[in-house]
Each structure stands twice: as C-alpha cells, then as structure tokens.
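Protein entry
_____________
===
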Amino acid sequence: MMTQRIFLSGLISTFGLFCFPALTLAQAPSGKELAAELNAAHQDGTSYIRMRLEVNGGGAIQIQSKQRHVQGSSETIYQILFPKERKGESVLLKKTSSGAPSGSVFIPPSEEKSLSAGDMKQRLFGSDLTYEDMIGNFFAWSNQSIQGQEDIGRHTCWILESKPSASDHSSYASVKSWIDVERKVPLKVEKYDSKGALQVSIETTNVEKDDLGRYLPASLEAKRSGSGGSSVFEGSRIKHGVGLTDADFTPQALKDLTVPK
C-alpha cells in the first residue's frame, strides 16, 4: 500500500529518512536538528496523492492531491473525485516561508472564491483539519525544543515542541509532535492555542513506505476540540517526481481533474 503524507503541511502536512539507534533522551538530537531533518524530508518536490476521507463515520470521500514542496514554498491542490454529487470541488493552498497563506476554492459548476489568511481556519471538505493544518509546516518554525521521551505502543518517541514566530502566520501558539525515534515519523501531533488549550489532535494509525522507500503516515485520525467526532484520512497512492508546473497551481487549474504523469 502506497502512503499519504497528510502532515505536513502541516502536517504537513504534513512530514523517515534517518534512523537513530540511541533511544535515551541524553543522546537525542536538539530540537532544531530534529525539526530540520523533518523539514528537509518535507521538501520533496512534486507529488501526486490519492486518499480516502471519512468524516464522523459518514460516507467516504475520494480525494486526489497535487503537491509541490520546495525550499521556502509549498503549493497544494485537493480535489474531490467521489461521490458524484461533489466531484470537482477543489481547494488550492499556497504558503511561502515568510508569507501569509493564501488560496482559492472552486465548487462546480461555476462558484469561485479567493482565500486569504483569515480564511485558513475553514475546514477541508468538512473534516476536522483546517486549510492551515493542510498547508502549514511547523517543522520549519525557528523555535524548536525536545520536551521529553515517551512510548506510543511499542515505539519510543521524542516529544518535539514547535512554537511559531510572527512571520510564520500561525493561529496556533505551540505544536507538540511525538516523533518515532527509529522511523522518524510523527505518531501523534497536538496543536494548542495561546491559552494552552488543545485545539486539534492527530494520531497516526498506520505507517507504510512510500514510492521512495521512506516511512510515512499512511492513515491518520484527526479530532478537533468541540467537534464531537473525528476524521479519518487513508492514503492509497503516492507518486513523486510527477510533471507539475506553475500553471498547475493556479485558480484555473482547480477545474482540471487530470492525473499528472
């Protein structure tokens, strides 16, 4: 099964290139070193992803995503392929390292809307993850620290705390991520507001290798505080090095459901 890198952006979306044999906190890398390695893995050029989204146990939504992540810039399009009545609903998200996020929305047959930084709290296709969650990359923030070590299941994790500066344009005050020491994959992410209240939690429920042989989250469950439910993202396909250009990340491109080669 090919995997879906949903962190990244935030989760970055987004976010296993390196393995660390030492499991003690004293031998852990610094927060900046760990975040830098995860951020470097995020900048993997162009990719095409297929995934399945289920919100609060409802019917499945099939989504395709076209992405381009390079030094200092991320661009992503999410498009619904199924169910038929929602086919073509699309979202374009953009973020530079020092700029505010922006984007566009297209709802067939003709509804178009631009997205500003103030719209980033809207939820992607009704899920528990916002546009900001999908395009933000907290591993790129300058303030990074190791807060401890904890086991999740059979996997030892370093707890990385990330805090944004004003130039990161984040609505979150801090993010904690539990990074699997051996596979270098986030197994859990928690995002907090300025009062220290948990806003959203994301748990990795399955880890697989992608087409480049790297470990990535293949399935995720997200829960937003106060929503009373959860959203499950399951990746089914990922392909790197696809032919995507500037023209593929414009408002006009939202109407194109073609699969890149």
In short: The first strand starts at residue 7 and ends at 8.
